[in-house]
Amino acid sequence: MKKLFKNIGTLYGIDQGKDFLKGKEMSTLNHLKDAYFIVKDGLICEIGEMQHCPQTLFDQTIDARGRSILPGWCDSHTHLVYAGDRSGEFVDRIKGLSYQEIA
Fold first, then answer.
1. Which backbone phi and psi does 78 adopt, to 5 degrees?
2. What does the DSSP 8-state code read for residue 41?
3. DSSP state, 74?
4. What's the number of CA atoms in the CB half-sphere (13 Å) around residue 22?
5. 15 near 74, Cβ under 8 Å?
């Protein structure tokens, strides 16, 4: 299956050829204005400016209508569910205990 996302106002996070970013690279969010991208079998296979967008047939075409897209963005943090009472830890911190001592 081949999908085309077109007329994207701003396409963010387009660090082509990199598996991940680290260090100072993480302080810059690369982007492309007036863009398109193509997904084939679940993987992004092509990106570019709309003026170079292929005119071939796709299984699905999604018109972003000038909106922003972050196709590779992944929110990698989680929050553990904790249903207990931590008021004792709060009192220990007020008494000056470190987090290590409380743990």
1. -135, 165
2. T
3. -
4. 2
5. no
Any idea which residue has 């396409």 for tokens? 11
The b/e string for 1-30 (b: 16+ C-beta within 10 A; e otherwise) is eebbbbbbebbbebeeeeeeeeeeeeeeee
Tokens 């007020």 sit at which residue?
94
Could you tell me the two tokens for 62?
């999604």
Helix (H) or strand (E) holding 10: strand 2-12
What is the DSSP secondary structure assignment for residue 3, as one 8-state letter?
E
Structure tokens of 3? 């999908």
Report residue 20 as tokens: 């991940």
Spatial contact of 35 and 92, defined as CB atoms under 8 Å apart: no
Q: What is the pLDDT of residues 23-78, one digit of tens each?
A: 777 777 889 999 999 999 999 999 999 999 999 999 999 999 999 999 877 777 77
Cβ(57)–Cβ(38) under 8 Å? Answer: no
How far is residue 38's CA from residue 53's CA, in Å, rounded to a whole number? 9
Quote the CA–CA distance of 47 and 64 in Å, as a whole number. 14
